[in-house]
Amino acid sequence: MMKNNSLKWYLISITLFIFFLFCTTINLYHTYGYILIITESIICVFFIILGLNKLKDFNELLYSNLGETISNNSYLLIASILISGIILSFTLEKRTDNEIIANGIFTKAIITDGHMEVSKSVKRTFTSYELNIVFNSKDGQEHNILTKVDKEVYESLSKNLSVEIKYLPSNPAILKIISGNSNVQKFKNITNRNVTFFDLEKILKSKNLDIENYLNKISNGWEIRKKDSSIIYENIIKNEIIIVSSENWLMYSGSEISDIENFIPSERIIIKSDSIAKNKVKIGTVNFELDNLIAIYKTSINDKMNIENSLIIKSK
Q1: 10-residue stretch averages of pLDDT, the chain, 316 residues long
Q2: Among the three residues 38, 72, 99, which one is the final residue of a domain in this structure?
Q3: Of the candidates 2, 3, 29, 62, which lies 20 to 30 Å from 118 by C-alpha distance?
Q4: Are residues 205 and 176 in the same domain?
Q5: Are residues 48 and 118 in the same domain?
Q6: CB contact at 8 A, 220 and 178
């Protein structure tokens, strides 16, 4: 009989836990956050305590010694709260992501501010990151939202930068900033890689290629503008620029070409000549003749005394 009493409370605890997992609304979770998670975990653990005490019903709470039960099983109860909290948090975040993927709306937002907060415990240091963003939802309303982000997203963005987001129309405060490899891959289903030499060659040679669409399938954040006889494609987030000239050449600037020897396929290089200054900083030009292309790699120092690399590619 005593075992049946314990089993009853354990089953109630498990039932409540499953209920919280799948019936807690996303709006409720994003309103109260970790306070809600901790509360739901404690409720589940409370019924575990009743099971450990082998109570028949709530009336016996008046005569039971719950304090002793909690003291004797403190490690088990703390572990139960932590584990249930982690599972609840993970599941609700997953449900939120799935809801945004299925029903979210893409739009542009402006980053107005951001900050990081460091909290310390005895053994660990925790850092949280938040960004203030402003955007207009589909109904024309302006929203000023403070949203938590991970370190990758926080470090890739800056104040006053325009960034793509995906929000829930039912509650625009529930959103994801489309930046960082993880979010871009998850919410836009693209690899979010850097531009390769193959991409540049395809852009140069394909006459009917929709370049903007092609680049947006490679990574997120491309902006397009025209200047004289050229079209400029810029990705501020990934720090890449492609200038496509109407005179059958293009210029690329990005972090990938800092190692130019690996960026250009070595098996395609026929002749290489350079005029690099013989000092600690390699400044100058390297010319590559390929099977069907000419590539000119330039290294220079800009007005801010930073090293800039660029690669010009043109047909033979």
Answers
A1: 70 95 95 94 90 70 66 84 95 96 96 88 80 95 94 88 94 93 89 93 92 93 89 92 93 88 89 66 80 88 73 91
A2: 99
A3: 29
A4: no
A5: no
A6: yes
